[in-house]
Amino acid sequence: MNPAYRVPVGKFPLRDRFVSQENAASTPITEMVVNSLITSHHDGAKVNAGKIKVSGMAWDGGYGISSVQVSTDGGKTWAAATLGQDLGRFAFRPWNIDLVAKKGKNAVMVNATNKLGQSQTSELIFNPAGYHNNVMQNITLNA
What we know:
With 143 residues, the protein is mainly β.
């Protein structure tokens, strides 16, 4: 873990740090950040106008997912998705939500939060190796 699997110090929330392996510029990755994906549809998918079900998965470093929020207006407002069964702190957590697709382009954005209150970021936190990319997924559905 000396030359690889490291992120810049202070850029990511870490509870369980490996302090003896830190240096002035970087720290080893010791846990996963909160993340979620829309798995029911791909970006640009064609859907029927009207009620649609959007679903996906959320996960984190073992603290547990407490909520998943979905936005259809670029993050101005959020609606709570229904969480699936919690199969344990390290398991992926399914989620789903019913949305109304209007004729034309429909943006759908997802954001998960864990039981510590950590959530996804709206902008990429750059690091040379590209680790911990947990930017909120944003797709467009065409009705």
